[in-house]
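Sample pair:
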Amino acid sequence: MADIILGIESSCDDTSAAVIRDGYLLSNVIASQQVHKDFGGVVPELASRAHEQNIVPVVSQALRKAGVKASDLTAIAFTRGPGLLGSLLVGTSFAKALSLSLGIPMVMVNHLHGHLMAGFVREDGKPVREPSFPYLCLLVSGGNSQIVRVDSPLEYEILGQTIDDAVGEAFDKCSKMLGLGYPGGPVIDRLAKLGDPLRFKFAKPHIPGLDYSFSGVKTSLLYFVRDRMAEDPSFLENNKEDLCASFQKTLVDILMDKLIKAARQTGIREIAIGGGVSANSGLRSRITEEGLRRGWNTYLPEFKFTTDNAAMIAVAGYFRYKAGERTPLDVAPVSRSAEF
């Protein structure tokens, strides 16, 4: 009998549901929230209210697209955390109610583990190319920047992580400084393609080990732009593309320097990236180039699996379900990146 898993993702501002059968994706539906653009960032209360409105139609559409009924489901995988507590509460509560009504088990998934497993989402008609264990994953998003050693679908070790801001947050704050809007990552990436990445230099932190820091890079950009505009008020408008290209290159350099170091220390040549920032064209190009230069096998997720999505939650839950994991109905969501 086939294992049909419904995945539910609601950690931030995207409501998503996906269905997989024996590891193969049947549907993946995402409802994004546009209201946050007016505020320059995600407003937690508005996000949780939107999840309440979206969760039922999104799950219904995912089941319909997959061609399955709720009664066909084997289990429900859901994001327990980390994320916005109100948003997580909507997804968790819905998973509990559906689990109870159908009499099927739940499997909780760490949102970050979902990103680590995004490369294992299989689709009919597409060649299967998955990293071999162990592999290193550069996990980069708006809330996290980590280098993770993945030894199996259930075994992870964080080798390095940011000690302050995440790289995605650095992109967003840079965009805000330059008046480019929210979310900042895609805007900066688009403008960077038109600029000279070698035009300007920004400070790079010297953090021991494999940990990251991005706070100083933002400060360096802020002071640089402030001082130049004091000399020439039109500096920002006339150099926007070069500023974005140079800032993006600095962030990618920081990320790659530590990833190269981690690969050298561990001897692992299977290298993957995941998370929202893994959609960045500069990072994707650089990791591909380094892979060719250093003999790595590199794995880049499809763009549709870089953002928050339920397909990655469903596949991570599928592995956990097959390993015998089950989640009790009294589980509560967690906002921080707890290991569970």
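The chain has two domains: 4-127+305-322, 135-302.
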